[in-house]
Design brief:
The protein is mainly α. Helix content is 73%, strand content 0%.
Length: 475
Amino acid sequence: EYALRGGRIYMDAIDNSAGVDCSDHEVNIKILLDAIVEAGDMTEKQRNELLASMTDEVGDLVLRDNYQQTQAISQALALAYPMVDVHARYIHALEHEGRLDRGLEFLPDDEELGERRSENKGLTAPELAILLSYSKITTYQDLLNSDAPEDPFLSQELERYFPAPLRERFSEQLHEHRLHRQITATHVTNGLVNRNGPSFVFRLGEETGAAAPDIARAYTVAREIFDMRTLWDGIEALDNTVEASVQTRIMLDARKLVERATRWLLRYRRPPLDIGATISHFSEGAAELSERIPGILLDGDREAVANAAQRLIDANVPPDLAKRAANLGPMFSALDITDVANSTGESLDTTAAVYFILGDRLRLHWLRRHIEALPRDNRWRTLARSALRDDIYNQQAALAAEVLSDTPDDKPVDERIEAWVEANEGPAERTLQVLTDINSSGTFDLSTLSVALREIRNLITTPEAPPEEVGAAAR
């Protein structure tokens, strides 16, 4: 009631979380050190001195956990109304699985959610905190019931849980901790849910059919490919120097990139994902493109990115961070561009130029914006919107691969695209005419946008190749 009237409040479990977290660290550290003492590798006096010396760092780790948890609730609150239907579906799914008693947790019923929707409202911060908690509980259980804690890359999260002296001196013993699976699953879950919100695992599972362990693997790859930790650190360093709403907006843009990349990996890479190998495959290209995409974008897109960066600079965000934040949208294409470059043997620069120029020439960017504006107020509309969005990216990648494969590589990019358009003059003109007709009609719904995508798909003449050969470009 207090939150519905504008009060700023979480809930008891969130307010008490740091105390519980501190106790967890204490117990888990003592289990580790007691085993080391029992093995004769440390005296009890040395154990006690080491425990006392780590007090401040344990405090920092606990505060860090809770900073990220309340940050996640604040971000969820910023999207409470746009996500109200998603949250309602998630609550229903938890109830159906017997994992949640809505009445016990004082979550609103369907009638109340309908009233809030009509008033442009969603769940309150306390209600989102409850949903966040259940997301962590269920994700943790799903990870623990899988082989995810044994994954060579995910198991590194175990070390992040402990203070530096233990990581440096007892790395081997950490992985022999009798609760190592539980600690790993907890730490992976916290990072996943805190960074992506309470409905992330549910939505990606709904859209792709993937289970929580595979979603955790794909998220980890996406995070590392785009070096998100340095971006998050930069945003969080602005605490009390810029408006919190500015930080939240950048965080949500970053989250959108990670979510899209996670979904892409779930769709176009076979599970279980080899985290280390997949990061190696994409990270170099993503890093290179992050430097070059601003110069490759066409005038309209370049101007939009520059304006977005300037707005952030005007809001007191440092220029380098503002420019990186403004480029988060175009950076998603790094996955497709890297795959197409590998499959065609072209350079990243040439591939990216063809990808973006072709997208502009065939008005794919315009079409994608209308697809992303489609409603997602129920499961089926959400899935349809997601399918169309994935399809438009796939077609852009496939078309770029075809242009690169069908035109001489000694010609400038503009000439290669013109040569391809001329060779496909009839289908290209028909596609552009259909897009013009749709634009003139002013109707941008599932029917019209599906027709547009069909016309674009008809432009592709290259037969499909196995996914391992050309990745997403062939799909």
